[in-house]
Amino acid sequence: MRPSHRAMKNQRPRRQDAASAKPPFKPGNERPKPPAWVHLYGLHAVCAALENPDRRPGMLFFDQKKEEALRPNLEPILERHHNPPPLQATSAQHMGTLVPDGAPHQGVVLKTRPLENADFKAVCARLSEQTGLVVVLDQVTDPQNVGAIIRSAVAFGAQALVTTDRNAPFETGALARAAVGGVDHLPWARVTNLADALNALGETGAVLMGLDGSDEAEDIFVPPKQRRVLVLGAEGKGLREKTRETVDVLMRLPTDPAFPHLNVSAAAAAALMLLRV
C-alpha cells in the first residue's frame, strides 16, 4: 500500500530558492525560443485565434474561390476585432505553400505571432484559489499529441497546461489544428524544471497524479481532493524517474491487459473525463 497523500506531502522537499537553483550558464544552455511567426490553418483554429484578444495577427490569407463560403464565419469576427489583420485573397496553389504538404487548410491561413507563455505563478495562484485540474506533460514532444491533449483539456475544463522549455513543442499550425483552436482557450506555461514546478503545484493543496502503465501503478481513482494535477509522460518512455518520485500517486487506466496500447493523447482524454472537477 502506498503512503497516504498527506504523508507524502509532508515528505516532499521544499523548492529551492530560484536564485540558488539556477544552473551556471554554458553555451547551449539558452532557453529555446519560439518562432517569430506561425501560420495557423483550418477554420476552427483560425477563428479561435482571431477571437483571442491576446493574439497579434499579421495577415489573413484566404482562397479567393472560397470567399463566399468563408464569409459567414469570418466576417462577423473581423467586424468585432479591435485591430483586424490585413486580408489577402490568393490562389489555392499559393495557399498550399503556406502550410505543410497536404495539410487541410480549408481555404484559410492566419499568419500570427505565437501566444505568449502563461505565467506559471498565476497558474499556481488560480489552482490555490479555485478547485480544478492542471495538466502537466513530461517531455511529450509530438505536436499532434500535444494538440490533441489540449483539445481534451479544454473540453473537460482543465485550468492550464504546463510543459518544460525543452523537449516540448512550440505552437505550430499542426498543433493548433489538432487542438481545434484549444490553444487560444487554455493557458500554457513553460517551466525550466518540472520537478520544482510539480512541487509548487503540490503546495497549492493539489494531489499530483502520474499516469503510468507500470506494475506499481494502481487503478485510476477519483481522489477526494478537488485540486488535481494530471501528469503524463511521453509514449514509450513514460514518466521520467524524477517525475515518478515527485508525484503523490501513480495511476493506470483499466485497459484490457491483452491490449493496453493507448497513445498519450487517448490516455489523456480518458483520464481527464474521469478526473474532471
Please describe what this structure looks like.
- The strands form 2 sheets. A 7-stranded parallel β-sheet has the order 7-6-5-10-8-11-9, with helices on both faces. Strands 1-4-2-3 form a 4-stranded mixed β-sheet.
- The model is unreliable at 1-9 and 13-21 (pLDDT under 50).
- It has 2 domains: 38-113, 60s Ribosomal Protein L30, Chain: A (2-Layer Sandwich), CATH 3.30.1330.30; 117-275, 3-Layer(aba) Sandwich (Alpha/beta knot).
- The chain is built from 11 helices and 11 strands.
- α7 runs parallel beside α11 (264-275).
- β2, α4 and β3 form a beta-alpha-beta unit.
- It has 277 residues and is of the alpha/beta class.
- The longest helix is centred in the N-terminal third of the chain and has 14 residues, at 67-80.
Write the layout of secondary structure elements.
Blueprint: H1 5-11, H2 18-21, E1 38-41, H3 43-50, E2 56-63, H4 67-80, E3 87-90, H5 92-97, E4 108-113, H6 120-129, E5 132-138, H7 143-155, E6 160-164, H8 173-178, E7 188-191, H9 194-202, E8 207-211, E9 218-219, E10 227-233, H10 241-246, E11 249-252, H11 264-275
Parallel strand pairs: 2-3, 5-6, 5-10, 6-7, 8-10, 8-11, 9-11
Antiparallel strand pairs: 1-4, 2-4
